[in-house]
Each structure stands twice: as C-alpha cells, then as structure tokens.
Amino acid sequence: MFERVLGLPAHPFFIHAAVVLVPLLAVAGILYAVWPAARRHVRWTMIVLAVATPGAVFAAKESGEAFEESPNFQSDQLQAKISEHEDFGSTLFLIVVGLVLVALVMAYVVRPAPGEPIGPAVAHWALSGLTVVLAVAALYYVFKAGDTGAKMVWDGF
Which residue range is the domain that position 99 belongs to? Predict the structure, then answer.
C-alpha cells in the first residue's frame, strides 16, 4: 500500500505532507500553549492538525520502509545513511504521537475563553510546558529527517 503512487515511489509524495503538517502543528501547539489571546483563533486549527499529522508522518515512515527495500539501495554505505534517516523518522513519529496527545488534552483542559478552568492551574502549566518541549523536539526531528533524506538525494547517495 505504501510502495507506489501512480507507478512512482510513494515516499517522495508522503514526506511532503509530513514536512508541512509537523511544523504547522508545532507552531499551533506553541501558540496555544503560550499565548492565551490566540487560543480562540488557534484551537480548531490545532485540533485538525493533531488529527491529520500522525497519519502523514505514519505514511511517510511506512513508505520510506517500503522504499528502502528497493534493489537500488542495498549497498552497505547507502544502508548506513538510510538507517540514520530512518532513525530520525521513527523518533519523529513517536514525538508527534506524544505532541498530538498532549495538544488534544490541552485543547480540552486549557479553554480558549476566560472562565472556569478544568483542573488545577498546575495542570495547565504542565500541559503548556510539555507541548512546547514536544513541539520543539518535533521541529528538530522533522528537520533532521528531512535534511538526511535530502542529502542522500542531492549528494547522490
């Protein structure tokens, strides 16, 4: 399922969705966490991105694993580069899953409008802090995964 799209390798198609959606989710999560005035504007965007982003990252990860099996990529030197790239992608997927869970809980607990908060203030601060940490980690790992993949393509493997 993740091998080809219209006869072409699927990985180059799927990675673009991940490379766009991960930073958007990270920025939306950070804005929601640290800027209370923006919450009512960002909340639904963050929720939609939280639903879509894991699927994009999963598709990129799975299509990359299918792409790796190509007979053109079996040299030991190339497999070492692919392994490094794959490690960044796998770590990114785990971080995105954590970011999605925290962002969705934060969207429920940290309300966009002033009023009666759900739960103690410590929970709000903890969720906000965890969201920022996971968002920054997601930005780092999407950059590293993209950078290692692009270097393989543009430096000629």
Answer: 4-154
Q: Rounded to whole angstroms, how far apart are CA atoms 150 and 73? A: 15
21 compared with 9, residue with greater pLDDT: 21
Between 13 and 143, where is the model more confident?
143
Q: What tokens does 14 get?
A: 């799927």
Specify the pTM.
0.90
3-class secondary structure, 113: coil
- Six token digits for residue 18: 């991940």
Question: Which residue type does 123 have?
Answer: A
CB 136 within 8 A of CB 111: no
Report the DSSP beta bridge partners of residue 60: none
Other CB atoms within a 10 A radius of the CB of residue 28 amount to 26
Q: Which of 45, 1, 23 minimizes the C-alpha distance to 92?
A: 23
Reference 58, options 88, 14, 27; nearest CA is 14
**Total count of domains within the chain:** 1
Q: Which residues of 75-97 are buried (b: 16+ CB within 10 A; e: fewer)?
A: eeeeeebbebbbebbbbbbebbe
Q: Whose CA is closest to 22, among 124, 143, 157?
A: 143
